[in-house]
Every structure is written in C-alpha cells, then in structure tokens.
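Write out the 3D structure for:
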Amino acid sequence: MLFFISICIRLVDVFKNLLIASKLGVSDEADVFLAISSLPDSLLILLGIDSIKGIVNSEYSFEINRNPENVKESLNNLLKILLIVGFLFSLLILLFRNELINLLLPGFTENRFILASSISLVILLFFFKPVQALIGSYYNAIKKYYYPVIIQVSVSILIIISVFLPYIDNEILNNISYGFLLGNIVLFLFLFFRKSVTENIKLNFDLKLDNLSKRIIKNCIILLGVVIINQIYLYSRNFFASYFSDGSIAALNYGSSIPMFISSLTFNVVFGVLLSNLSNYHSNGSEDEARQLIKNTINSITYIYVPIVIIFCIYKINILNILYLRGNFDEKGIELTSLPFFGNHFH
C-alpha cells in the first residue's frame, strides 16, 4: 500500500516538475529557480542536519518499545535545538545571500544574479526544514509511514496552484517561488500540529541534552564527513554549470529529474520501513532475520532497476520528447537535456 501511495504522490511531483519545465523551458529563469530551490536541502546536508533522518528513525525505532519516555524527552530536546539552529542559520543565510550565491553559483552574473538574489529572499526561509526532517523520522519510528509520505504532496500542489494564479509583478518565477515557500510552511504545520506529535511536545526554555539525543548528535557528526563529500560532489554540477550557456543548470536538473524520481521513490518507500524493521530485529536479537531482510531488499531493488536503466538508455530521446516537448520547451532544450539524462542512470 505504501508503494502505491508513494507512486501517486511522486507522480504529482513529476507533473509539477513538467509543468514548471513547460513554463520556464531551458532558460535563465529555469536556471535560477532550480539552482536556488535546491539550496535549502543542500545546505541542510552540508550542515549535517539531514543525517538526522536515518539516525532518528533507527534510534527511536530501537527505543520506542523499551523506553518510550526516553524517546519523548529526546524528541522535545532535539526539536528545540533544531528550531533554534534552523532560525539562526536562516537569518545568517538571508543576510549574506548575495555572498552565498557568489560562492556557490559564481557564474551567475547580471540578470541571473539579480533574479537569484530576488527569489532567494523567499526560498531560503527554510528554518522549519530541520524540524520536518526530525518529525518525519519520528513518524517512521512509530510506524506511521503513510502520513509523512502523503503530506509531502502539499509542496507540489501549492506550486501547481501558484502557476495558474495571476503572476506577481508579471513574473511567473515569483509565483513558483512563493508556492515553494507556502508548500513547505503547510508541510511543516501538518507534520507538527498532529496529535501524534503535539501530545509528546512541551516547548519551554529548558534546553538540555539527554543521553539518547547525545547519541543521535554524535552519530550525525560521525557521518558528517562522508555526507559533506558526497554533497559537494553533487552540488559541483550547479557550480560549474553556472558558467555555461543559458539553460545548462536547467538541462542538468531536467535530465536528472526522472532518474531521481525512481531513486527517491525507492528511498521513501524502502528506507524508513527498512530501518524501522532492522532496528526491531536487532532489539529482539534476530540477527539472521535482519541479514535476510537486507539481502532480499537489495535483490528486489536490483531486479527492478536493471531493466529500467536499459529502457531509459535505449529510448532516452523518445522519453524526453513525451515528457518535456511542450510550451516553452523546444527541440534545442531536448537535445541539451538528453546529455545529462543518459549519465544520471549510472550514479
């Protein structure tokens, strides 16, 4: 059931991406939006905060049946820490957004830099994103897998709605940016103000670290080096593409969006459930069952991925034409997008 729900939600996300592509095409505006909208998640990863998703899921799944009060205390403490950290970093990033754009997107000059500076005021208000990561992992730990997956569709829906509204200052880019921001705010509110969370939350100024929270933070720090190296590699695409001709960043993102749809779907469906079940097996001493679960999961994913990659590589132009060739997306954009589309299947 979770797989089919995730498929439907991801299809809404794909429709949103295709709608944006048809409106913006391969252009300056597309480059700017796709580069800036990827910054919040990229910065969370670079700061090590994104690692909390898997670690919280694993640790809470292990503790939830043994010491539920420890989980409750940790959730409160981590929530307060992430609210403070998220707010402070968002404030710093907004104050120094031009310097950040110059650092991460050095090829953005003149019109693209002005556009990036303008929409970054809206998109980089992301201090609630660390809390989204924490609460989403908490839901997985208490085996409410469906809710965080379903509610993620709010971001895509609000962006889709924004495209059909009267343009703010006659710029569709402004509509999409505000849709992105409002979608993330709605996602945060739905995650946070639900009984499963609110009944365990007591926000106060008593900031401390319990042993479970210390363990989670320690594990995040241990993973930080690997995560940063991986993210620098991934973000280097936008860094170098910012120097290239108009639409290069857009082509990279369009080309990777379909392979990323497959991988993110797998991640969302498999990862949370797998971690929770593995933690339960280990807590019960069922090591053989845990190993068999990992083996079966890897085999299943491999058998699914291999034919998908072969089909995508053989029919790449046909697939891109069906998906993108409409609105402001022309044949030249298809040709440019086909280059990264092929290479992304092997990452």
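The chain has one domain: 2-346.
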